[in-house]
């Protein structure tokens, strides 16, 4: 049996569309990264946050490279540049975790989410 919170989460997720759904995905990355930052001794939280973030940005990369993507080329280039930063930073943090390493990833994901919420 699902709790009321889980039922709300499923209902909420099913009602999201377009830019709002995308923004929520980036905010989930922010939440996971902040949790990992708050508990630096918990390697499992760090691994989960980095795995989710890398998967999210892999999807972004694939979408940006799709011929169906209708964003202008300048914005695509900026987002691809951010995705390369995210990939590089995630790999660096995996190799050598340190206390403030996640802040850049948090900022990038938060800023992308804000942009999506403002256009959604």
Brief descriptors of the model:
about 120 residues, mainly alpha, 5 helices, globular, disordered N terminus
What would you say this structure looks like, in words?
This protein has helices at 4-15, 18-38, 43-65, 73-95, 103-119. It is mostly helical and 120 residues long. It has one domain (4-119). The longest helix is centred in the middle third of the chain and has 23 residues, at 43-65. The protein is globular and about 40 Å long. It starts with a helix and ends with a helix. Residues 1-16 have low confidence and may be disordered. It holds the Pfam family FlaF.
Brief digest:
By secondary structure, this protein is mostly helical. 80% of the residues lie in helices and 0% in strands. The protein has one domain (4-119).
Strand-helix topology:
Elements (H helix, E strand, L loop, with lengths): L3 H12 L2 H21 L4 H23 L7 H23 L7 H17 L1
N/C terminus separation: 34 Å
SS strand fraction: under 5%
By helix and strand content, what is the structural category? mainly alpha
- Helix % is over 70%
Shape: globular
As an assembly, this protein is single chain
Q: How many H/I helical runs? A: 5
User: What is the count of structural domains?
Assistant: 1
The biggest beta sheet is recorded as:
none
- Please mark out the parts with pLDDT under 50 across 5 or more consecutive residues, or reply none: 1-16
What string, H for helix and E for strand, traces the elements in order?
Answer: HHHHH
Number of strands: 0
Our Rg estimate from Cα atoms comes to: 15 Å
> Could you tell me the mean pLDDT?
86
């Amino acid at each position: 049996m699902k709790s009321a919170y889980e039922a709300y989460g499923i209902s909420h997720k099913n009602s999201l569309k377009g830019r709002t759904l995308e923004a929520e995905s980036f905010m989930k990355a922010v939440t996971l990264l902040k949790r990992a930052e708050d508990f630096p001794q918990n390697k499992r939280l760090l691994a989960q946050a980095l795995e989710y973030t890398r998967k999210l940005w892999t999807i972004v990369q694939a979408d940006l490279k799709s011929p169906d993507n209708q964003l202008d080329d300048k914005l695509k280039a900026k987002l691809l540049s951010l995705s390369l930063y995210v990939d590089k930073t995630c790999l660096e943090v995996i190799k050598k975790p340190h206390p403030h390493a996640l802040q850049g990833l948090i900022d990038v994901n938060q800023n992308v989410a804000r942009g999506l919420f403002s256009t959604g």
